[in-house]
Amino acid sequence: MSYLLTTLTTKQEVDSIIRSTIDKVLVLRFGRASDSVCLLLDDVLAKSARDVSKFATVALVDIDSDDVQVYVKYFDITLIPSTIFFFNAHHMKMDSGTADHSKWVGAFRAKQDFVDVVEAIFRGAMKGKLIVSCPLPPERIPKYQLYYKDV
Amino acid sequence: MATLADSFLADLDELSDNEAEVPVEDEAGVANMEEDVDGDLADLETLNYDDLDSVSKLQKSQRFADIMQKVEDALEKGSDMSNHGLVLEDDPEYQLIVDCNALSVDIENELVIIHNFIRDKYRPKFPELESLVHHPIDYARVVQKIGNEMDVTLVDLEGLLPSAVIMVVSVTASTTSGKPLPEDVLEKIVDACDRALALDSAKKKVLDFVESRMGFIAPNLSAIVGSTVAAKLMGTAGGLAALAKMPACNVQLLGAKRKNLAGFSTATSQYRIGYVEQTEIFQSTPPALKMRAGRLLAAKSTLAARVDSTRGDPSGNTGKAFREEIRKKIEKWQEPPPAKQPKPLPVPDSEPKKKRGGRRLRKMKERYAITDMRKLANRMQFGIPEESSLGDGLGEGYGMLGQAGSGKLRVSMGQSKLAAKVAKKFKEKNYGSTGGATSGLTSSLAFTPVQGIELSNPQAHAHQLGSGTQSTYFSETGTFSKIKRI
After folding, report:
1. Fewest C-beta atoms under 10 Å: which of A12, A61, B108, B166?
2. Which residues in chain B are contacts of A51 at CB distance < 8 A?
3. Are residues B346 and A54, on separate chains, in Cβ contact within 8 Å?
4. Alpha helix stretches (DSSP H) within chain A
């Protein structure tokens, strides 16, 4: 867990942060402090938080708390860490060649990858798009398998 | 002043043997000396130079004696600061100090005159000495020591001069073109040297006295630079009022040594700074900041001198406050710069890209511009099916290219707009000089270096295709016609 990034544990906090970031991309990481991949991701986020501070805000959400289970269900978060992007309270989707466009699953390979993704989201959002395509080459995108239950 | 006028006349008429009428005063002597620099040397020698007394009168003057007496009394008495009234100027000691300041300036002038005298008299003996030893008192001492001695190596100059200078002096003396002096001249020289040294010691006494009273005269100034330096500054400036009137840049240079000896390196000589160099604050600043500190000190001490000259703050608190300020500023200069924080990235697309323009860019764009051939190929005439590369509507269409009515199959490269401008300028330069009256031999044909001679004006074609307003659907040259195609 990074000490530089704010951790949110209640639904109210999540609500308020979504509503209060205006004209900036909001990056919410859903995950646990104990997971190794989460730690990797947190490290990258903490280091780049200052660099993107002019157009993005980064926050961490702990999925173990009961309050935020509503959001976990809503966004269908099953694999951690999952990162969800918002812009002016709109949920931004990103097509990175994976199955799920509404979130980013896994860690980033490098700081620059994260900055590129946030910039792509920002540009798309400023143009008025709700879904953007990922600027990273496929080898830098973490792959995962989704298993559908009862579908 | 009749004698002054007479002596001027004497110079002009070059009636130089008027030694009898020349017991002139001090100022006349100085004025004549300055005139005679480009005048005759004969005149110089015949003027009063044989007698030191006529040149340097200060020591014999009553004023000098009075003031020196008072100074010595006061020095013996010790400092007595208890009873200065509200109006300082009435205090006799203050008056004495003012007199001392004036006297010290006079002494300095006197010293210069005596130095010149000694130098001129000693020149036949050792001419190079004056360029090696600049300081008047040092010069007088050296002359006194050497006397009429031909072999300078026998003379012990230790303690009078730095050893490097002693070495140079001995070397020069061995090759000097001087001759020993006659006895009477030597006597005069020794007398003059004694005079100079006595004046120097008198000046020192006066300065000591002023220094001891400095806390009383100028408390603010001495709070900043210290009483020694304050006394020196006041002495050189000629009084507190004079010091207060000077701008700070002049105060900085009071007491600066003028030139370096020829042949010695100027690498060590710092930029001009005078008595201010001897202050405690200056000595304790690191060498990199010395110049700035010197300027700052001079500025603040000028302000303090101004406060003192109007007796604005007899307690000296202003001076102490200035000193504190100076100390703080110097400390601040020595702070390391704040650590550089990495800047956050700028918002994407917030800064518009700087588009360049100009001739170079236009020429570059021309290389990728649509050619006239392509323009023709893109357009089609109404009602006429276009030809195509593979025939029958397959392949690339040719559009207006090669159609009847457009003029020709082969489309020549029309002049680009840039080349058109250049051609026009070229034409004006060469043919415009004929002015209004055109000769019968000029033609309206366009000779351009690009294409050589063309009977048709190529600019017309460029026009035709370039502008979108002129339509080429309806041909300019031809009419409606039907041509059978085989």
Report:
1. A12
2. 342, 344-345
3. yes
4. 11-20, 36-49, 69-75, 111-127
Q: What are phi and psi of A91, to 5 degrees?
A: -80, 125
Whether residue A115 lies within 8 A of chain B, CB to CB, comes out as yes
Instruction: Tell me the DSSP string of A20-50.
Output: H--SSEEEEEEE-SS-HHHHHHHHHHHHHHT
- Round to whole Å and give the CA distance between B160 and B190: 17
Q: What is the Cα–Cα distance from B364 to B341, expressed in whole angstroms?
A: 42
Structure tokens at B449: 């270096």
Q: What was the ipTM of the complex prediction?
A: 0.85
User: How many Å apart are CA B122 and CA B117, to the nearest integer?
Assistant: 9
Strand segments, DSSP code E, in B69-109 are none
Whether the CB of B349 is below 8 Å from some CB of chain A: the reply is yes
CA distance B343 to chain A (A): 7
Verdict on whether the full-model pTM lies above 0.80: no
In 10 A of CB A11, how many CB atoms? 16
- When CB atoms are compared, the residue of A51, A53, A55 closest to B348 is A55
> Taking CA atoms, what residue in B is nearest to A127?
B349
B24, B32 Cβ separation under 8 angstroms? yes
User: Is there a contact between B348 and A122 if contact means CB atoms under 8 Å apart?
Assistant: yes
Q: Residue A52 and residue B344: Cβ atoms within 8 Å?
A: yes
Residue A56 CA to residue A73 CA, distance in Å, equals 25
Selected for mutation to probe chain B from A55, A117, A122 (highest B CB count within 10 Å) is: A55
The alpha carbon dihedral of A30, A35, A41, A45 has a sign of: positive
Rg (CA), chain B: 46
Average pLDDT, chain B: 76
The partner residues of A30 in beta bridges, in order of sequence, read: A61, A82
Per-residue pLDDT of A41-98, as tens digits, reads 999 999 999 999 999 999 999 999 999 999 999 999 999 899 999 999 999 999 999 9
Any chain A CB within 8 A of the CB of B184? no
Residue of chain B whose alpha carbon sits nearest to that of A49: B344
Max mean pLDDT range (A38-52, B219-233, B409-423): A38-52
* Whether pLDDT at B261 is above 70: no
B128, B140 Cβ separation under 8 angstroms: no
The helix/strand/coil state of A62 is: strand
Residues of B in contact with A114 (CB under 8 A): none
Q: Which residues contact B352 (CB under 8 A, 6 or more apart)?
A: none
DSSP B469: S
Q: Report the distance separating Cα B207 and Cα B332, nearest Å.
A: 35
Element (H, E) at A132: strand A131-133
